[in-house]
């Protein structure tokens, strides 16, 4: 037996490795511990195997996924269920035994001639009441390397675990490779086995499918949180800096392209995490942690003006993996929206060789990514690894809405906030396939990852209030309001003011105007915030245009919501809040 496994002394881990080694038939098994030597081994293996390549900048590498393997594969991502569940929304499921039989056949010999890496990670801070241990088996050094940047190392946590049998399991194989990318994409499968807390992901390399500890583990965590009485949320976690060096912690859920990362990275504030949190009640307080220790972020439009902290990391020495961007002949990455012109000679591209005259092919894929550790960011909050997490004083929900929602408002109560979170909408953009401006309902910005009926998810949020001495304040933001001519009414930097106003509301430092849809700022409170935060004046005309409550548009929105939730068996308290909201608008 491997000495590292012998030292671990975990019979369940050994049994899982033995089972899948016999099934997948790797040529070699390499167990990874928490040492820097093993982390360096993963980086070298990724380079030796051609999954990653060196760039000119020290510590930077790049990776290409196959042309058909550059996004989450929703069609082949399924929940394995022994009994059907009425989720109330459309989600892909499969009979559990049918799925397990199929995946075992596809796994047979899938790692022949390859090296199986055994990784131990921890979701959430190590040695914390939030911690969930995770075992990853993969034949991709790129995946294992990515996880080293994105998650806390967990070998020692496994070794000292009080309950050594309680962990998530992830089985991944990139499958047969051709020119360094997955060949058999028709056999790509991502199966989430909720009953056994494990995920199978095969014949893919794109990290959203292959790095099981991210959104796939999130699906498992949502189900686990429901059973155990805590929350797993698709939220950033950040410190908003108020008066006298005060830091107030906010979480926030936004659908894609609605400002989630840019909010978490507002200049002058501090980031704890950009994607997923666990939140638990302790002594009547709601506390939260970032599940991850890194960022797997969309690189399109990251530039020195709008994203100075991230751009600085991407253009200086330090560990970073670029995926599906343009690589010049001298080893420099370029991407769409960087405000840096690509070389006239072009370079290596996920499609082959790219040149500027290929007008219909963007410099980088729309889903091109960067993978970095949060430690590399200058604005990282020092509480990142605190095992106790942070006290969560506010939650914020955002959407993309051109004609209805004001830029920021505060919910009237916790239950009203739960309603507002359940009614998040986002308009499709020109970059989305299909018609522009179509509103998509995305409750809690989490519909893609929900593994229990929405009614139960909502009930968990409502029930939480009973265990808390003080509930977090709930806010809703909208950065995309337009005037009659289609011009944005907000500047992209204005979000800093909205968050600072919300922070002041948490501490009772500013008053607000009560409207039928919630509390909105007073003009006289926003003027000094615009001056101190952005060094600019704020006109009464701008305020009136932005914070006029458009009653008919709001009535239309809430009628849409009433029609949607009529199909669900929602908790009585939720139904009461929905009715009350509609009545106030009347």
Outline of this structure?
This protein is α+β, with helices and mostly antiparallel strands. It has 17 helices and 33 strands. Strands 1, 4, 5, 6, 7, 8, 9, 12 and 13 form a 9-stranded mixed sheet that branches. Strands 14, 15, 16, 17, 18, 19, 27, 28 and 31 form a 9-stranded mixed sheet that branches. Strands 2-3-21-26-20 form a 5-stranded mixed sheet, with helices on one face.
Textual characterization of the structure:
The protein has 3 domains: 204 residues, Phosphoenolpyruvate Carboxykinase, domain 1 (3-Layer(aba) Sandwich), CATH 3.40.449.10; 264 residues, Phosphoenolpyruvate Carboxykinase, domain 3 (Alpha-Beta Complex); 81 residues, Phosphoenolpyruvate Carboxykinase, domain 2 (Beta Complex). 29% of the residues lie in helices and 24% in strands. With 586 residues, it is of the alpha+beta class. The protein is built from 17 helices and 33 strands.
Please describe the topology of this protein:
Layout: H1 3-8, H2 11-24, E1 28-31, H3 36-48, E2 53-54, E3 60-63, E4 77-81, E5 93-95, H4 96-107, E6 115-123, E7 132-138, H5 141-150, E8 152-153, H6 155-159, E9 168-173, E10 177-178, E11 181-182, E12 189-193, E13 198-202, H7 207-210, H8 215-228, E14 231-233, E15 236-241, E16 247-253, H9 260-264, E17 270-273, E18 277-282, E19 285-290, E20 294-298, H10 308-314, E21 320-323, E22 326-327, E23 333-334, E24 347-349, E25 352-354, E26 369-373, E27 390-399, E28 408-410, H11 414-422, E29 425-427, E30 439-441, H12 454-464, E31 473-478, H13 495-506, E32 513-515, E33 518-520, H14 523-534, H15 540-547, H16 551-565, H17 572-585
Parallel strand pairs: 1-6, 3-21, 4-5, 4-12, 7-9, 9-13, 16-27, 27-31
Antiparallel strand pairs: 2-3, 6-7, 6-8, 10-11, 12-13, 14-18, 15-16, 15-17, 18-19, 19-27, 20-26, 21-26, 22-23, 24-25, 28-31, 29-30, 32-33
Helix pairs in contact: 3-5, 11-17, 13-14, 16-17
């Amino acid at each position: 037996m491997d000495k590292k496994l012998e030292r671990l002394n975990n019979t369940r881990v050994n049994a899982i490795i033995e089972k899948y080694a016999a099934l997948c038939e790797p040529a070699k098994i390499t167990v990874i511990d928490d040492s820097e030597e093993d982390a360096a081994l993963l980086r070298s293996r990724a380079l030796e195997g051609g999954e990653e390549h060196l760039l000119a900048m020290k510590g930077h590498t790049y990776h290409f996924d196959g042309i058909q393997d550059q996004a989450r594969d929703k069609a082949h991502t399924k929940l394995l269920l022994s009994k059907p569940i009425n989720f109330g929304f459309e989600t892909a499921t499969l009979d559990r035994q049918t799925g397990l039989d199929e995946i075992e056949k596809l796994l047979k010999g899938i790692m022949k001639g390859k090296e199986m890496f055994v990784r131990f990670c921890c979701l959430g801070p190590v040695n914390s009441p939030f911690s969930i241990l995770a075992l990853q088996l993969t034949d991709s050094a790129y995946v294992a390397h990515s996880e080293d940047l994105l998650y806390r190392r967990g070998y020692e946590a496994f070794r000292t675990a009080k309950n050594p049998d309680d962990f998530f399991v992830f089985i991944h194989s990139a499958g047969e490779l051709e020119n360094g990318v997955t060949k058999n994409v028709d056999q790509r499968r991502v199966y989430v086995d909720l009953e056994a807390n494990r995920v199978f992901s095969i014949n893919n390399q794109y990290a959203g499918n292959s790095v099981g500890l991210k959104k796939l583990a999130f699906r498992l965590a949502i189900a686990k949180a429901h059973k155990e009485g805590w929350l797993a949320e698709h939220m950033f976690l950040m410190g908003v800096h108020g008066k006298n060096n005060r830091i107030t912690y906010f979480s926030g859920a936004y659908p894609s392209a609605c400002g989630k990362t840019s909010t978490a990275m507002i200049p002058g504030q501090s980031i704890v995490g950009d994607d997923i949190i666990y939140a638990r009640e302790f002594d009547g307080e709601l506390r939260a942690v970032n599940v991850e220790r890194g960022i797997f972020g969309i690189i399109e439009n990251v530039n020195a003006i709008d994203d100075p902290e991230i751009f600085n990391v991407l253009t200086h020495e330090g560990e970073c993996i670029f995926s599906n961007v343009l690589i010049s002949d001298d080893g420099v990455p370029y991407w769409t929206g960087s405000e840096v012109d690509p070389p006239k000679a072009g370079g290596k591209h996920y499609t082959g060789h790219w040149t500027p005259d290929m007008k219909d092919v963007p410099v980088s894929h729309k889903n091109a990514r960067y993978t970095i550790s949060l430690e590399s960011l200058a604005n990282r909050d020092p509480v990142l690894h605190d095992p106790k997490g942070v006290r969560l004083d506010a939650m914020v929900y955002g959407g993309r809405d051109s004609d209805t929602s004001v830029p920021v408002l505060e919910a009237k109560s916790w239950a009203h906030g739960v309603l507002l979170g359940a009614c998040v909408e986002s308009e499709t953009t020109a970059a989305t396939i299909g018609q522009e401006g179509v509103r998509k309902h995305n409750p809690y910005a989490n519909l893609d990852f929900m593994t229990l009926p929405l009614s139960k998810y909502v009930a968990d949020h409502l029930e939480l209030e009973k265990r808390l001495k003080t509930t977090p304040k709930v806010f809703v933001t909208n950065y995309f309001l337009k005037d009659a001519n289609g011009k944005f009414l907000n500047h992209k930097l204005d979000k800093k003011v909205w968050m600072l106003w919300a922070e002041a509301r948490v501490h009772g430092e500013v008053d607000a105007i009560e409207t039928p849809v919630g509390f909105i700022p007073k003009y006289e409170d926003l003027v000094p915030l615009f001056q101190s935060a952005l060094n600019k004046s704020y006109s009464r005309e701008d305020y009136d245009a932005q914070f006029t409550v458009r009653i008919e548009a709001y009535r239309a929105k809430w009628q849409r919501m009433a029609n949607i939730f009529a199909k669900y068996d929602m908790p009585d308290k939720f139904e009461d809040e929905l009715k009350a909201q509609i009545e106030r608008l009347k």
